[in-house]
Design brief:
248 residues; mainly alpha; MetI-like fold
């Protein structure tokens, strides 16, 4: 009942924006610029019955999630080492700040020179998520209660137990919060990289094709698919890792 009610309370908002979309379509008499919600969803339904549609989703999701988990592991490791050794922190921080400041488009164009286009979504998702994971994980580790660490030293607690029962417990909420935000950024940046690099057989390439041939219905259909997939991925991640956090 709770799940049903939670969904139903968003229905009026969804209907409102669908109405706004319908009005905008009526005011702009050009199917090249905008199509109606009915045309967009009808096209999405048609695409959903084809193998290339699901193949593109599978390829894009696999590469983007690979980049995300690579950034998750690398960011946690770098943050842990940086929190332990100040010299490493001073050396790593400028690089992380630079990565965070460079636009996705610049990363994509530079990466196209050095690697195959198929690896673009992995790389761009990685560099987009890495700073988010690093900053939050480092903050979580350094915010560990010094009294707990002092007590652990008094009772000669082994280093591995300090990591598991003190540092991990303190940093876990920070890591999970960063990962929740990062998965959305990974998805959006990965699709953008596919679009710019025209990576074959992906969602981004399908968007590029729709733009080139002025297939506005396809463009809207793929955009709806991207929004729905991003929403489902974030929900799935929060559900799975939320349960892990509760058990911990």
């Amino acid at each position: 009942m709770k799940v049903s009610f939670s969904f139903l309370k968003h229905v009026p908002v969804l209907l409102f924006w669908l109405l706004v979309w319908e009005v905008a379509n009526a005011l702009i008499p050009s199917n090249i610029i905008i199509v109606s919600p009915r045309e967009a969803f009808a096209r999405l339904f048609s695409l959903g019955q084809t193998a290339p549609f699901w193949s593109a989703i599978g390829i894009s999701m696999g590469r983007i999630m690979y980049g995300f988990f690579l950034a998750l592991c690398t960011g946690i490791l770098l943050a842990a080492i940086s929190a332990r050794f100040k010299l490493v922190h001073h050396l790593v921080l400028p690089a992380i700040n630079t990565i965070n400041a460079i636009p996705i488009a610049s990363f994509t164009v530079l990466a196209l020179v050095a690697m195959q286009s198929a690896n673009l979504p992995v790389f761009v998702a990685f560099v987009t998520v890495l700073p988010i994971i690093f900053y939050n994980t480092h903050k979580g580790i350094v915010s560990t209660d010094p009294l707990l660490l002092e007590m652990a030293d008094v009772f000669d607690v082994p280093p591995w137990k300090k990591v598991v029962y003190i540092y991990l417990k303190t940093a876990a909420p920070f890591v999970l919060s960063a990962a929740n935000v990062g998965i959305g950024f990974a998805w959006k940046s990965g699709i953008a990289a596919e679009l710019i690099g025209v990576v074959r057989g992906t969602i981004g390439a399908s968007l590029h094709t729709a733009r080139i041939f002025l297939q506005t219905a396809d463009l809207f259909a793929w955009t709806i698919a991207i929004v729905l997939l991003s929403y489902l991925m974030e929900k799935a991640f929060r559900f799975i890792f939320g349960r892990i956090e509760v058990k911990a």
